[in-house]
């Protein structure tokens, strides 16, 4: 059993009008998902920044509709996960789907829009994408500011509603602001910066802060977050898992593939079925308890919304 905390299937369904059931242009479609060991998949609402501000929330709602109409409703054995009890209640033959938000730019400065998305089922909220918004600066913003006053209001709401605050894509200052304010933290798809010096990866200070906060971290399959090389393989992904463990993050670790959010692939991890190979090799390198925790149990243990 594997839980994957991040993919961008909804963006492709919305932008490219693809068929979730069979489209070969998806790294995760219904058929590939069923052939993989992934039992629970998180589906991110990500509205591209080129969408006009006045249309962004509408686009987010359209992605929510696609989530239910294309992923949940057609299949009796794919269950909408709203809380930890839903996770624990999944039967052996069932799979789970969780709704997340990647970037609060879609809510502008209107907290009620975020409340609406939470009511619709969003269970993890990435405060930014790479750019700045009303909540905080993203990792690509030159000024590198932290959380705004409105951002503090957003985090307070997430704490109250028992929703994960996701720090992937957040500015460095914003990351540490979140560590001081959020009760439930995750980095849904970020790798180890000491292995690959990319701005989206976590340095040792950030990793330790997430450990101290009892947070959750998803190893991601973005090749340029994994190794600065022309060819990147699943062995390089394993290096990030082992590095996180060596830094003390074994009880915080999991996976956040970013499938369908990337146009270059790691060799052996071209789509969700690649988890079979990754699983086989990791189980040779980890203890059974470590694998059990990293594959799914850490995510379940830390899932903030109990019921």
Shape: globular
Roughly what is the average pLDDT, rounded to an integer?
Answer: 98
Secondary-structure element order, N to C = EHHEHEHEHEHEHEHEHHEHH
Kindly name the structural category. Answer: alpha/beta
Instruction: Count the E strands.
Output: 9
Ends distance: 22 Å
Q: How is the biggest beta sheet arranged?
A: 9 strands, parallel
What low-confidence regions span 5 or more consecutive residues with pLDDT below 50?
none
What's the CATH architecture name? Alpha-Beta Barrel
Helix content: 25-40%
Q: How many discrete domains?
A: 1
Verbal overview:
This is Membrane dipeptidase. One of its GO terms (molecular function) is metallodipeptidase activity. It comes from Paraliobacillus ryukyuensis. With 307 residues, the chain is of the alpha/beta class. It has a single domain, classed as TIM Barrel (Alpha-Beta Barrel). It contains 12 helices and 9 strands. Strands 1, 2, 3, 4, 5, 6, 7, 8 and 9 form a 9-stranded parallel beta sheet that branches. Helix 1 crosses helix 3. The longest helix has 20 residues. The protein is globular, with a radius of gyration of 18 Å. The two termini are 22 Å apart. The mean pLDDT is 98.
Tags for this model:
307 residues, alpha/beta, TIM Barrel, 9-stranded parallel β-sheet, 9 strands, 13% strand, globular
Topology:
Blueprint: E1 2-4, H1 9-15, H2 30-34, E2 38-45, H3 53-72, E3 78-80, H4 84-89, E4 95-102, H5 111-119, E5 122-126, H6 149-161, E6 164-166, H7 172-181, E7 185-187, H8 204-212, E8 216-219, H9 223-226, H10 234-246, E9 253-255, H11 275-285, H12 288-302
Parallel strand pairs: 1-2, 2-4, 3-4, 4-5, 5-6, 6-7, 7-8, 8-9
